[in-house]
Design goal:
alpha/beta, Rossmann fold, 2 domains, three-stranded parallel beta sheet, 10 helices, binds NADPH dihydro-nicotinamide-adenine-dinucleotide phosphate
């Protein structure tokens, strides 16, 4: 059986088109243009690249982006003051502080300083706390986990009653995606570095979300026939060709494709969805600010 490809790029393009139309409709109705502030602290090239990608995508859908670049040695107080200024700026509907922050800065305090109605990254402790509580609604969902769920929804995958295995328990992917699956009535097993018999647990999965950051760790014979795989992993490995490297996921794609019912490619799976969900959150933030 050859697995059906879950084309994250195509789905993200479709979502971005929907957002573009909604932004245009807002503006035509005389409402404010949605605005996203990106805050980059220090000069980490990967973080700078992610921020620049987010700004470009904002421009494509008609969202204004405001960029704030701050030195790595900025004080905690000065950074929180910058966040407070953005909280008070009516043109800014969403605030994204690019993580990780340089050493010495307290990430949790910075995230807590963001107005919960502008927390488009969904990492404010209140948003995460609500996600973990039954019947409580977070204002925003974190982008990558929300992107994983959106891929399942738009691919017609039934989560209710499914055995879902989440490989990884990080704050930004594994844990929130597990909470979102529970919310959708899946039965969830969360695996991590101390889990015993990983292959045995993964073999029980109807849905596997892999977010471990280890190139092609999940082998074909760890999988149940007909499993749906969302591979969040983004790992750079060396190759012999001219380019010298390629990106692979946490799952051995070739072997998994022979067993799975559906699978996301890397790249072109979860990655494009992360920014699409961020744009969706920014649009929602603008609507919240309308009152
Ligand atoms: P982290 O390093 O924060 O977390 C990795 C998790 O995997 C941890 O919970 C860790 O367990 C677990 N783990 C590590 N090694 C093993 C092992 N051998 N067996 C079982 N579990 C293990 O990573 P992130 O969650 O931030 O990212 C995961 C992957 O997703 C990365 O490749 C990253 O690049 C990618 N990513 C992709 C995004 C996208 O938009 N496509 C966005 C964000 C991340 P423990 O808790 O015990 O240490």
């Amino acid at each position: 059986m050859a697995a059906q490809l879950i084309d994250g790029q195509a789905i993200a393009n479709q979502i971005q088109q929907e957002i573009k139309e909604q932004v245009a409709a807002r503006v035509a109705a005389g409402k404010t243009v949605p605005g996203l502030a990106t805050v980059l602290v220090g000069g980490d090239p990967a973080s700078a690249m992610y921020v620049s990608m987010k700004q470009k995508r904002c421009a494509k859908v008609g969202i204004t982006s405001f960029h704030v670049e701050l030195p790595a040695d900025i004080s905690q107080e000065a950074l929180e003051k910058k966040v407070a200024d953005l909280n008070a700026d009516p043109k800014v509907h969403g605030i994204l502080v690019q993580l990780p922050l340089p050493k010495g800065l307290d990430e949790e305090r910075v995230l807590q300083a963001i107005d919960i109605n502008k927390d488009v990254d969904g990492f404010h402790p209140l948003n995460i706390g609500r996600l973990a509580q039954k019947g409580r609604e977070p204002v925003f969902l974190p982008a990558t986990p929300a992107g994983c769920i959106e891929l399942l929804i738009r691919s017609g995958v039934k989560m209710e009653g499914a055995n879902a295995v989440v490989l990884g328990r990080s704050n930004i992917v594994g844990m929130p995606v597990a909470l979102l699956l529970v919310e959708r009535n899946a039965t969830v097993t969360i695996c991590h570095s101390r889990t015993k018999d990983l292959p045995g647990l993964i073999r029980q999965a109807d849905i596997l979300i892999a977010a471990v950051g280890r190139a092609e760790m999940v082998k074909g014979d760890w999988l149940k026939e007909g499993v749906v795989i969302i591979d969040v992993g983004t790992n750079k490995i060396e190759t012999d060709d001219e380019k010298g490297y390629k990106w692979v996921g946490d799952v051995d794609f070739e072997a998994a494709s022979k067993v799975a019912a559906m699978i996301t490619p890397v790249p072109g799976g979860v990655g494009p969805m992360t920014i699409a969900m961020l744009l969706q959150n920014t649009l929602k933030a603008a609507a919240l600010a309308d009152g």
